[in-house]
Amino acid sequence: MSIQHLIRPTIKALKPYSSARDEFKGLKDNLIFLDANENPFENGVNRYPDPQQQRLKLLLSEMKNVQPEQILLGNGSDEVLDLLIRMFCEPNQDNIIILPPTYGMYEVLADINAVKTIKVNLSASSFQPQLSDILERANEYSKILFLCSPNNPTGNSFEASTIESLLRTFKGIIVIDEAYIDFSNKESWLSQLHNFPNLVITQTLSKAYGMAGIRLGMCFASTEIISTLNKIKAPYNINELTQKKALEGLRKHSALKEQIASILTERSTLAEALDHLPYVEKIFPTDANFIMAKVDDANQRYQQLIEKGVVIRNRTSQPLCENCLRFTIGTNEENRRLVQILKTL
Ligand SMILES: *Cc1c(COP(=O)(O)O)cnc(C)c1O
User: Fold this and answer.
1) Ligand 1, atom 3: nearest CA belongs to which residue?
2) Binning pLDDT at 50, 70 and 90, where does residue 2 land?
3) Tens of pLDDT along 44-57?
4) Any alpha helices (H) in 181-252, and if so which ranges?
């Protein structure tokens, strides 16, 4: 499968802006840089950041076992998702396919870009993609199918066999959003990149890695797709502070492992506690750092919790999520408080 015909003609023809730091990449010491109109007095951030984030990509390429040329970094995965839509979808013509209930940004980003969204609900029984429905609803203008696995807000992962069938039969790009993959015992699709030219995987430092504040999203795909995304991204989209902090944070493997282990322990404890509450009707299986639960009256329980000082997410208005609440897993202390309060409602 070639992906060239999926790229917007405007983007294919685009001659990208060439920044000062793009044009001169020499790494020799003691050079005098008078090419970017920067203030020459050193303060740690007076220079433009590396537009290709080479040090960060090198570290990520070792961690994730992909080539640096297969990585694009964004200001959060939200920027990456936006770039993907802009690369493949012609405004007022093309569409994306999403599988509700799912992450709300796909549709918002499509709307901003005047791209239509086709919605094919997950199965009501187990929140799995419905292969034949998706293929039936797709048309020649369906450029991207977004699969969020583990899915937000339901928490479950999609069956590998279903994803593989989609990768083989869907005629556009498949983006697997793996924002929650580090909480899951299922394997990432990264190892499959070389098998599927239409596969794009996004991950983020915002969830398991504990760096939502620095805004760093990752996109992994073929060098063909990544080089085109590089043409359309803003030249200095990842700022210097973010690059530094990400390098620092990514090196703290063991602390991170401990945090994830703690979150998973707390997740079991909270699931157990929710199970014993008379007004909780169902707890859905989760591979993420949150639990979705169906209660008697989501609006009422949500308000009661706010009055007691706990903010969760009310998902009752989402398709298939009537009376469902989403609880993010906090620290042991936070969860103990939460459970205490839940018992008083
Ligand atoms: C939180 C989340 C993201 C992360 O977005 P960032 O912009 O990287 O913070 C992406 N996808 C899903 C499904 C999420 O829930």
Assistant:
1) 179
2) confident
3) 999 999 999 999 99
4) 223-232, 240-250
Tokens of 36: 């970017």
Is this model's pTM higher than 0.90 or not?
A: yes
pLDDT tens for residues 302-345? Answer: 999 999 999 999 999 999 999 999 999 999 999 999 999 999 99
Regarding the beta carbon of 177 and ligand 1, being less than 6 Å apart is answered: yes
pLDDT of 17:
87
> Does position 26 have pLDDT exceeding 80, yes or no?
no
Ligand 1 centroid–CA 33 distance in Å is: 37
Nearest to 186 by CA among 155, 209, 207: 155
Does the beta carbon of 78 lie inside 6 Å of ligand 1? yes
Residue 32 Cα, ligand 1 centroid: separation in angstroms?
A: 40
Is any atom of ligand 1 closer than 6 Å to the C-beta of 206? Answer: yes
Ligand 1, atom nearest to 217 Cα: 8
Taking the CA atoms of 90, 95, 99 and 102 in sequence, report the sign of the dihedral they define. Answer: positive
Question: Does residue 214's CB lie within 6 angstroms of at least one atom of ligand 1?
Answer: no
Looking at beta carbons, which pairs linking 2-9 to residues 24 or more positions away fall under 8 Å? 2/197, 3/173, 3/197, 3/198, 3/222, 3/224, 3/225, 4/224, 6/88, 6/143, 6/172, 6/173, 6/198, 7/87, 7/88, 7/228, 8/86, 8/87, 8/88, 8/89, 8/90
Q: What is the DSSP string of 12-46?
A: HH------HHHH-----TT----SS----S-SSSS
Q: Is the CB of 52 under 6 A from ligand 1?
A: no
Q: Whose CA is nearest to atom 5 of ligand 1?
A: 77
Whole-number Å distance between alpha carbons of 336 and 91: 49
